[in-house]
Design goal:
This protein is of the alpha/beta class and about 120 residues long. It has a single domain, classed as HesB-like domain (Hypothetical Protein Aq_1857, Chain: A, Sandwich), CATH 2.60.300.12. About 20% of the residues lie in helices and about 35% in strands. The chain contains three helices and eight strands, in the order βαββββαββαβ. It is globular. The N and C termini lie far apart (about 30 Å).
Length: about 120
């Protein structure tokens, strides 16, 4: 049985990620914990944002690792996250900001059945 992913991506966000990857190379995401732009998924060049033992890797979207702080994950562990885009400039350092859009998270609780088969998280390094 296939594992239930913890993080997904919309087609619109996938197109932006592909565009950013073509311009900047390999990418990574870190779910902001509330500073700067509230709680937004932030896109960086791979390795530009340093993850550590206080971060967890929830999975990948379009081949990009997706991280979140362990403490924030405790609040969100019961929800599936979907990375989407919206028009408007965010107040973060994320790579999509110059495009006049920003990434955002849509979430929904996992069902009881999904919880039994969730993809595992990994400790970041």
């Amino acid at each position: 049985m296939e594992r239930v992913p913890r993080v997904l991506v919309t087609e619109g966000a996938k197109e932006v990620i592909d565009q950013l990857r073509a311009e900047h190379g390999e990418l990574m995401f870190h779910q902001s914990g509330g500073c700067c732009d509230g709680s937004s998924p932030m896109c960086f060049k791979q390795g530009q944002f340093r993850t550590g033992l206080s971060d967890v890797r929830l999975g990948e979207i379009v081949g990009c690792p997706f991280y979140m702080s362990r403490s924030q994950f405790e609040y969100w562990k019961h929800t599936q996250l979907t990375v989407d885009i919206t028009k408007g400039r965010g107040a973060s350092f994320s790579l999509e900001i110059p495009l006049g859009i920003r990434f955002l998270i849509r979430s929904r609780p996992f069902t009881e059945e999904e919880v039994k088969n969730l993809a595992p998280i990994e400790t970041a390094s």
